Amino acid sequence: MRSIAILGSTGSIGTQTLEVIRDNSQLFRPFMLTAHSNAYLLIEQAIEFVPRYAIICDNAKYQQVKEALAHLPITVMSGHQAIKETVTHPDIDIVLTAMVGFAGLEPTIEAIKAGKDIALANKETLVVAGEIITTLAKKHNVKILPVDSEHSAIFQCLAGEDYSKIEKIIITASGGPFRGKTSDFLAGVTREQALKHPNWVMGAKITIDSASLMNKGLEVIEAKWLFDLRADQIDVIVHPQSIVHSLVQFADGSIKAQMGLPDMKLPIQYALTCPNRVKTNYKRFNFMDYPNLTFEKPDMDTFRNLKLAYEALNRGGNMPCIINAANEVAVAAFLKNETGFLAMSDVIETCMQKISFIKEPSLHDYLNTDKETRIFAQNLIQQMPLKAIQ
Ligand code: NDP
Ligand code: MG
Q: Would the ipTM clear 0.90, i.e. be above it?
């Protein structure tokens, strides 16, 4: 029985992780659940799974959670500091990072330092500080197991393979709801249109990232660190059906792909059970339902975020941290109807030009870069008249 800490248990990945655990209750138990502000769902989850710890970041919700769980042997805490401290608990075997954005960085670092294996959904952590995370993981002999479906696909293709024989990887992208659209069309799209992903149901931030192709850009950077690759070994191809989850091409020219219906429960389960496979009753893929699997080149001129992410990866240093922070601010503003869809790329590009570049950043530098970029991006958005930027 392995004890799992689920950071962000109330989100899309968090709730699906609990479904996987419910199906495999003989293998796993949730030891710690955390939420940002959804007290109601955290309480419901804690009553069902009775973890040792339930932590809510929002201090104002602490009393509500505490009172609701008073009859159970659960320690209730609040605030980010409580997560950072509890994630190191000796009884935790694996930490599944399913919180969204930069907030995942510090708890992940603490968990690695305490020797916990990481099932990583929170890609922003590797984007921001991939070098620090991978170096720390090596030092503490910790595994970083991908939950992201594309990276899980690559990881599965690499089982039993020599990583030094990877020629390149090919990450598939659905293309999102605006595949094939022009910049003129994108200038006028609304939040509601962008939130309608054709194949996946996910949290709001990653859904907007998918529509803008920033998600693919973040995944390119995530792959660099997970599999120790150069930028020129990472290709992106648009595959609208989301059946081929990604591919690896080896030195002899052979290509391996991992396929299946789009369902995050499979990569979540594989991260928790690998290298073993555990039987599931999930719906099976049938070729007859998909007579045409198609592939096309991503349009990086219209969807500039993917190009900007490659540029950030090539420049290195704190540049990926800059694009991540700028993107988080831009997406939050877009979700509040405070900025336009295309303006998100303008904000990211301006931040890349204006924020001081640091070639070999320390953790302290990353924290400062994140802060500085957020303030800069926020001011930029406030100065942009909404009509002019659309
Ligand atoms: P959601 O928005 O659905 O959930 C996010 C979770 O994190 C919630 O539990 C939320 O709490 C919590 N949270 C939000 N902000 C903070 C914060 N500042 N501090 C601490 N906790 C916070 O996101 P997803 O589940 O969609 O995504 C989670 C991560 O997984 C992201 O990094 C995403 O890129 C990655 N991912 C997601 C996939 C998916 O299919 N959804 C696929 C691949 C990767 P609360 O609900 O209480 O606000
Ligand atoms: Mg993905």
A: yes
